[in-house]
Q: What sequence folds into this?
């Protein structure tokens, strides 16, 4: 079996060059890092971005029941700025990132690294959604809703928390803050009927008020500056209202030729003069034609249609993100019923209006015909005959009774 060998001269040259290189290269000291990395932890730290309005001394990160999924979820609660939910922002899988966290600037605490570059941004959330599961208990089951105190509703939330596996009821802890309790009761009054029983206020969910409150939120979400996020606008508004293509129209464009002419002036300098040749319609057969395809759509949605679609998308987002599934399904059916009822009322009013207009026209025609019949009935035969006489050129009868001058 053949074996590849290396010549002695080439081996010697290589050895000499490597020894020369090693002699000419000076030794450098190894670089030392200013950070000392601690060993990897089982629970690495996470990065949270908190609002500037939140008080750093009194704010707390608590565990409450998620109103949509009923699972324990972390929230930021501040007595001054209210409730906040955490939105997770991750880097794309194709471009992984990591964080280097310097715990202290004096270098006494070692720095730490995280394998993932997740960020948790605190964004405001209406605390009404957190108490809706208790307020809407039994909605859609044809049970009579009772007026209950705020304490009863809060206790119902505590019971639901224990059923979902929350070891500690953090809601009762944050309710000790007077500002937080007042905020929750204020938001409950926006969607509930209230009665006073002594010194205590009783609450009962009003579905109509709840729907109106959700529509207000959807309007603010869709009509504020910036509107919906770009991804939602493209997928749920633009693409949903995209009209079918009627056809492709081919438009032929004529090219225009430019000619450059060299002209010698009296001074002996040469100047470049550009002349343009226009192509007339009669010369279209000899000109260069370029076909261009244009897509012709069936129709374009109006501004009102776009506004209603954005409102619909915003409302569906609220129903599918912050309401319990049973309550969201019940409100969707209620909205469909109200929409169909308003459409039928509008159609009925339109038909009634058309019938009323037709009746008025017929009544006016009938009265006019009756008046003409009365006038004809009160005229004698002689008067009718005289009306047929041609009186052109005759003097009027009143001229014979004028005073003589």
A:
């Amino acid at each position: 079996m053949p074996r590849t060998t290396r010549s002695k001269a080439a081996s010697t040259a290589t050895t000499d060059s490597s020894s020369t290189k090693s002699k000419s290269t000076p030794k450098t000291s190894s670089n030392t890092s200013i950070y000392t990395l601690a060993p990897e932890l089982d629970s690495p730290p996470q990065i949270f971005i908190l609002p500037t309005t939140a008080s750093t001394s009194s704010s707390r990160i608590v565990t409450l029941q998620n109103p949509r999924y009923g699972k324990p979820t972390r929230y930021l609660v501040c007595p001054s700025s209210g409730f906040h939910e955490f939105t997770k922002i991750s880097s794309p899988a194709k471009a992984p990132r990591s964080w280097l966290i310097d715990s202290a600037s004096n270098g006494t605490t070692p720095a730490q690294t995280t394998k993932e570059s997740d960020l948790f941004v605190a964004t405001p959330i209406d605390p009404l959604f957190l108490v809706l599961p208790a307020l809407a208990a039994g909605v859609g089951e044809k049970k009579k809703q009772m007026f209950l105190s705020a304490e009863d509703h809060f206790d119902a939330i505590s019971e639901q928390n224990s059923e979902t596996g929350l070891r500690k009821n953090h809601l009762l802890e944050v309710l000790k803050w007077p500002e937080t309790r007042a905020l929750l009761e204020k938001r409950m009054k926006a969607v509930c009927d209230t009665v006073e029983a002594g010194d205590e206020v009783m609450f009962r969910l009003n579905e109509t008020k709840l729907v109106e409150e959700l529509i207000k939120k959807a309007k603010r979400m869709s009509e504020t500056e910036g509107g919906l996020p770009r991804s939602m606008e493209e997928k749920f508004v633009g693409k949903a209202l995209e009209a079918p293509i009627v056809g492709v129209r081919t438009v032929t464009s004529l090219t225009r030729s430019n000619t450059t002419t060299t002209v010698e002036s009296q001074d002996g300098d040469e100047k470049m003069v550009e002349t343009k040749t226009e192509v007339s319609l009669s010369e279209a057969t000899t000109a260069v034609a370029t076909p261009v395809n244009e897509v012709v759509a069936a129709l374009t949605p109006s501004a009102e249609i776009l506004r209603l679609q954005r409102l619909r998308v915003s409302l569906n987002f609220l129903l599918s993100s912050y309401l319990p599934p049973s309550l969201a399904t019940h409100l969707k059916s209620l909205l469909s019923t109200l929409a169909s009822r308003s459409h039928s009322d509008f159609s009925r009013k339109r038909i009634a209006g058309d019938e009323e207009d037709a009746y008025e026209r017929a009544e006016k025609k009938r009265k006019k015909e009756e008046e003409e019949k009365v006038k004809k009935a009160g005229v004698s035969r002689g008067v009718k005959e005289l009306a047929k006489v041609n009186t052109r050129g005759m003097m009027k009868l009143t001229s014979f009774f004028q005073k003589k001058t």
The chain is about 40% helix and 20% strand. Residues 325-377 form the longest helix (53 residues). Residues 1-28, 257-263, 279-287 have pLDDT under 50 and may be disordered. Residues 47-205 form a domain with the N-terminal domain of TfIIb fold (CATH 2.20.25.530).
